[in-house]
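Re: beginner question about structure tokens

> Can someone show what the tokenized structure looks like for a real chain? I only ever see the sequence side.

Sure, here's an example I had lying around. Input first:
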Amino acid sequence: MNKKLFGLLLILFTLFLAACNGEGSKKTNEEMVETEQKSDSYEYDIVTVTYHEENVVVEYPKLTNYHDEEKQEAINELIKTAAIKPYQDTIASLDSDQKYEAEGSFEIKLKNEKILSIAYTSYNNVTPSAHPYHLFFTTNIDLNTGKQLFLTDFVSEIDNDFIHTLKEAKYVGEIESEYEQDIRNMAFGLYENDEKLISKLTRSQEGTNGIYVYVTEDALGISMPVAHVAGDHAEFEISIQKLKERVKLDWN
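And the corresponding structure tokens:
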């Protein structure tokens, strides 16, 4: 082969290898950036913990691998306290001839870097008593502050317009659709008027009126007490779009 032609081919081959190596380096840098971004995000894991006392067995979540260990410990203590308090209160209120059994689990309604929203459900039976009952309650935590959140933290104003929106909210319970209107009548018929319901909703953080709130990616959920025959509780969800300017705390 002509030496000049060989030299030219060698130069072109070298340039080709350099270009390939450059592409490889570029790809590696992109992967490194993605890795760094992932490590800087506030990802965390949820594990299940079981509270067991005599015939009471209930599950609740626990944070692990959170970026702030001190805050993680405080949040986990808040979760534990809120999760087992209803059962401990019931145990403490029993008469000497009564027995109590409960079985409960939880569902994570929302898990992101801002909010952790947890819903608890359980089957409960105190004997002797009229009948078993189903318990529903929630815990919402602002992960930035480590504090518990309630309806008035999510919604800026609870007025007649909000009540109207709530009454038209989507029912997400387990009762067949043909009985949905009966459920609505039960849930909202417990209150003499809208002003009474506004008062109960505003004070729902007290945890004494059976009203609880949770959030999902695109909705605000409100659980309200109903008759035992209807499951003891009913949940309604209002889409973020319908809340509009009433959203006080952005959770998605």
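Each token stands for a local structural state, so reading them left to right follows the chain. The CA atoms of residues 201 and 211 lie 7 Å apart.
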